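Sanity check

After download, print the first record. It should look like this:
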Amino acid sequence: MYFVILGTDKPGHEQMRATLRDLHRRYLGSAGQHGVTLHHGGPTQSDDGQRMNGTLLIVEAESIEIVEAFVREDPYSRDGLFAWVEIRPWTWTTGRPDTVTLQP
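Expected structure tokens:
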């Protein structure tokens, strides 16, 4: 199954994000060790595009419980950067690497 993970930073925690970013990126690199395949990801941006304010990931795993455990151990989650995190099962259709993009 595919899942979308959307985490929103607590306001005023830009320095925490910067401090944890390398640890977070290394953790994402170990996703396979946690039963998760990371397909896409990156920071969300403020309206003016000048600062990072959250995280969006697209992952694949056998269950939402595996994804929840993966997210709990992420340095961003573990150290309290996020105000909230949402994990949703997702059906990947358009733009999927192994399929043809749908035409209007």
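If your output differs, re-run the checksum step. Summary of this record's structure: The radius of gyration is 14 Å.
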